[in-house]
Amino acid sequence: MLLPTTVVGSWPVPEWLERLKTDHYRGRVSRTQLDDVHDTAIKAAIKDQELAGVDIVSDGELRRDNDVDYFLARVPGVVLPLSVKEFYYDYYTVTVPAPLPPVEGASLGLADDYAFTRAHTDRPIKFSFTGPFSLAQRVAEHVYPTRAELVHRLAQVLHAEAVALAARGATRLQIDEPYLAGHPQQIGDAVEAVNLVVDGVDVRWGLHVCYGNRYARPSWEGHYDFLFPAVLDARVDELVLEFGRKGDEDLPVLAHGGWDRDVGLGVIDVKDPAVESAATVANRIRRALELVPAERLVINPDCGLRNLPAANARAKLAVMVAGTARVRETLGPPTATTVDDRPTVATAS
Asked: Domain for residue 10, yes or no?
């Protein structure tokens, strides 16, 4: 298959689930009850992606309150001065008052999350988690001489999770760094941390860098040229970037910067509830094909779909799949071999 379609990670959180999550933090719903509800919501999110025709699905990240707390709250040595929230999506105040203890195996439970998803779909799965650079930015106070050292310690925690995920059968892992665009001068530290996470873990690795997606609004603006040349040292197979909202003026940055690996092409604007047409999606893909070969393109929304109404998210994925199919039809029959669950494709001459 040329141009496989996928998602970045998150899925819309229904209002009833928002209420239940918030009630949990106010002491009205038990963790056991909430876990049962999460299971149901994740199965529905998987089914929605399958019905839309998405080739590589996710769990929708529906167990996570936001992009940070699910991870930091589980890291041994991280302290939450106040563990209640007024609204589930709020961030905790987090401190690290003493050096984090040595990593002794996985502690965040991500492998169990993956296994649940694996049990409920026969499609390839992308499993994503927030990267160490972004996690460190949400730590209010810490004991380390520099924040870069905290980033490296968190990378070691995430490496243990990656090892556990691979052991449970995960073949596609993605590191999300939504805060990196706000600290472009620290790209070198972030890449070093990414390489600590992926070290020796033999899966297909993606790195997602966007401009933030809190409440469907960008946190920063800019261009992807800040990634280069440092990102060339990242030991990942794919850069997953947003182009649907921003347009494709940054596409030449990838070529000029020397990126010769896969590109996760954002073709759906997740910050606008209006549903694109299949023709718009197809045109965005065709413009990218002028700079990136088809065998190196993966088609996805710009970011996670969390902040969209569910009906809009389903419709956007459906047109993404339809637009991709239009382009595939023009590319000729592929020849394919399979490595794990990922098609490796070369266009027939």
From this structure: no
Q: Is residue 5 part of a domain?
A: no
282: in domain: yes
User: What is the Cα–Cα distance from 262 to 300, expressed in whole angstroms?
Assistant: 13
Q: How far apart are CA 244 and CA 259, in angstroms?
A: 20
CA angle (329, 334, 335) in 5-degree steps: 165
Two tokens at 181?
Answer: 């665009």
Residue 217 bridge partners (DSSP): 214
Q: What strands, in cross-sheet order, belong to the sheet with 204-209? A: 127-130, 172-176, 204-209, 238-241, 262-268, 297-301
- What H or E segment, with its residue span, contains residue 32? helix 31-52
Q: Report if residue 1 sits inside a domain.
A: no
Provide the residue-wise pLDDT of the chain in tens; the chain has 349 residues.
Answer: 899 999 999 999 999 999 999 999 999 999 999 999 999 999 999 999 999 999 999 999 999 999 999 999 999 999 998 888 999 999 999 999 999 999 999 999 999 999 999 999 999 999 999 999 999 999 999 999 999 999 999 999 999 999 999 999 999 999 999 999 999 999 999 999 999 999 999 999 999 999 999 988 998 999 999 999 999 999 999 999 999 999 988 999 998 999 999 999 999 999 999 999 999 999 999 999 999 999 999 999 999 999 999 999 999 999 999 999 999 999 976 554 343 443 333 333 2
3-class SS of residue 314: helix
Write down how long the chain is.
349
Domain containing residue 271: CATH number: 3.20.20.210
How many CA atoms does the CB half-sphere of 10 hold within 13 Å? 27
In this structure, the number of other CB atoms found within 10 A of the CB of residue 18 comes to: 14
Query: Inter-axis angle of helices 31-52 and 310-330, to 10 degrees?
Result: 30
Sign for the pseudo-dihedral over CA of 161, 167, 168, 170: positive
Give the domain extent around 173.
Answer: 15-347
Query: What is the tally of structural domains in the chain?
Result: 1
CB 231 within 8 A of CB 206: no
- For residue 125, the tally of other CB atoms under 10 A from its CB is 22
